[in-house]
Amino acid sequence: MGFDMSHVSLKEKYKDYFTIGAGIVAEDMTNPSSGHKDIILKHFNSLTCSNEMKHISFCPRSPDEYLLDDANVILNFAKENNMELRGHTLVWHFQTGEHIFENANKKILLERMKLHMLRMREAFGIYMSKWDVVNEAISDSDDAFLRPSKWLEIIGEDFMDYAFTYAHEVFPETKLFYNDYNEHKPEKSKRIHKAVKSMLDRGIPISGLGLQAHWDIVTTKVDDIKRAFELYASLGIDLDITELDISMYEFHDHTSLKQPTPEMIKAQANLYGEAFKIFREYKDIITNVSTWGVADNGTWLDWFPLEGRKNWPLLFDINNQPKKEVFEKILDF
Predict the structure, then answer these.
(1) Going from the N-terminus, what domains does the chain have, and what CATH number goes with each?
(2) Does the global pTM surpass 0.90?
(3) Looking at the annotation, which residues are catalytic?
(4) Phi, psi values for residue 201, rounded to 5°
C-alpha cells in the first residue's frame, strides 16, 4: 500500500463506519511502561472495562462493599477524552460474588439483581451508552439451550427477561446488549438467534447483540462468520463486535512457540482482513468494533486456556507497534 504506519489512526479511518475500541484494565492507564495509553488515545474512541465493572470486582465480598477506584480510572479517562464507554457486564455466571446467591429464592435473587443495577448506576452514573446486560447465557452444547448457572437454577428460564426489563428501568436511555462467544459457530448461532428473537417477540427491551469474536486461525471459517451475520442481521437490532482477538492456536492446542511463524502471521492477517470486510458490509447495524486488549504484550490469551502459552492475537505487537500485515489488510479499502 505504501502508507506510513506512524500516521495511521484506526478511529479516523473507520469514522464513517463504526467506533473502534478496546477492552482495557486500569493498569493500561496508570502504568506508563505498558505503552498502551498512547495507542488508546491515537487509535480508539471506545473503551470497555475488561474486569472493573464485573460483579466480583465491584462488590467481591458483600453487597455493601464497593470497590470503585479502578473502574473510575477508566470512566474518568473516557470522559476526559470524549470516548464511548461500554458497561460490562451486569448478569453473568462467572466472576460473580457468591454472596448474591446465598440463601436466595427467586424473589430474593431478583431483588438483588435489580439492586445491583441500581448500585452500578449510583456508582458510575449513566455515562455508558451501552451495557452488556447478560453475558454468555447460551449453552455451547447441542444437548442444552441455556448454560447451567445459579441464575437459571434459582430464577428459571426467564431470568434474561427480568435482567433486560430491570436494566431498562434503571438505564432507560442506554442500549442494552446480549453478549456471547462462539457466536459464529453454526449450531450455537442458531441458539443465540432463537433466544434473542424470542425476547424481541415478547417485547423484552433488548437493543443489541454483542458478538465477542474470540476467533483463531485454525478453526474459524469465514463462511461461518458470514452465515452468522446474515442470521443476526434478520433480528433488526444493533450488532457490536465486543471482544475481538484472533488466536494463533486452536483452543486446546498445547503447542507453545517463542514467536509466531510466517504462516501464522499471514493467516491471522488474512482473517482480520476478511473479518473487517464483513464488518464494513454491515456498517448500517454495526455500531462498534472492539478488541479484547490493546497489544500482544498484554493479552488474556497468554494465560487462558493454557497458562504460559504465549499468544499474539491483537492488532498491535509486543512492542506496541501496528502489525504491518494486519493493518494493510484492514485499511486497504
Answers:
(1) 5-331 (3.20.20.80)
(2) yes
(3) 136, 243
(4) -65, -30
